[in-house]
Design goal:
Radius of gyration: 24 Å
Distance between the termini: 7 Å
Structural class: mainly alpha
Strand content: under 5%
Largest sheet: none
Number of strands: 0
């Protein structure tokens, strides 16, 4: 297992290199620049800005300078938030996105897994149809519809919770965005758990356990372990996306997360901010894919990476 992890970590290096290279040149090919405003700056001011941020150099030279800085862990200054570096922006925004994403994943696993298990054990019952229907609705209704409805009902009409804002991570401010972020994941996890659990319940080892007259709790425990693999596969990339921020939820609830910075960086042609976000998301995706492979071997003893 250790040799497998080492190989995966080593293979991640060229992957990140390719992602950084493609992202760097694609964003530079797009028309416009970080200092192209509706009202153009004076030529002398534009020349000084390009010189300060090294945009007056050739594209290959800019790429070499950026790649060397990234290898040192320096993502450079922000072109739009000019008083901050990318590292400082991430140090402020990443904890917000990680908090929201972690809570949303936890809620999705607990609620979605429970609903999917109940539906599988009561197949073709009213509970099964209810879980299937709610899951279909959760997949079809997008976040930008759910989030305003939650704000209108629980914040404006009932006045139970704040409409928006971070407020230093107050639990009252987290409830609505976490629910809005978790609802689609609950639907997916519930449907995947139900389908995988039904297949597992029909397997030979579960039939053997039932024939031996073992308690239902033991059967559930063994069935959940066998049905967890597809859910774990899905949660790998889903966790990376949630932990690096949800653009819609963070924008609607005015949360200072990575997703909002990524949108603002793209709109304002903030090269370094967009590139830093791409690298960050890539690292999270590679890490969670590796974590999924490791969990496979932990959950299923038949999986070997030797």
């Amino acid at each position: 297992m250790l040799s497998f992890i080492v190989r995966r970590l080593l293979s991640a290096i060229p992957t990140i290199f390719v992602i950084v290279t493609l992202s760097f040149f694609l964003i530079r090919v797009a028309p416009g620049g970080p200092f192209n405003l509706e009202r153009p700056l004076e030529a002398a001011v534009m020349e000084n800005l390009n010189r300060i941020y090294k945009l007056d150099r050739s594209l290959i030279e800019q790429y070499g300078l950026y790649l060397g800085a990234v290898l040192r862990g320096d993502f450079g200054p922000s072109y739009f938030f000019r008083d901050f570096t990318i590292r400082e922006l991430f140090s402020r925004s990443l904890p917000v996105s990680i908090t929201l994403g972690s809570l949303a994943i936890l809620v999705a696993i607990l609620v979605g897994g429970t609903l999917g298990t109940i539906a599988a054990f009561r197949q073709n019952s009213a509970a099964d149809y209810a879980v299937t229907g709610v899951g279909a609705m959760g997949l079809t209704v997008p976040n930008f519809v759910v989030a305003p409805i939650l704000q209108i009902v629980f914040a404006l009409m009932l006045a139970w919770l704040p409409v928006a804002g971070w407020n230093d991570g107050s639990p009252r401010n987290l409830i609505l965005p976490v629910i809005a972020l978790a609802l689609p994941q609950i639907a997916v996890v519930a449907r995947m758990t139900r389908a995988s659990m039904i297949e597992t319940l029909r397997s030979n080892h579960i039939r053997t356990l039932r024939s031996l007259g073992l308690p239902q709790s033991i059967i559930v425990r063994h069935a959940i372990r066998g049905a967890a693999l597809p859910v774990v596969s899905y949660l790998g990339p889903a966790a990376a996306a949630l932990l690096t921020g949800s653009v819609v939820v963070e924008t609607i609830f005015t949360l200072p997360g990575v997703g909002r910075y990524f949108v603002e960086g793209a709109l304002n042609r903030d090269y370094t901010l967009v590139m830093g976000t791409v690298v960050l998301i890539s690292v999270f995706v590679l890490f969670f894919n590796l974590l999924v492979d490791v969990l496979y071997a932990v959950i299923d003893p038949r999986v070997r990476y030797d």
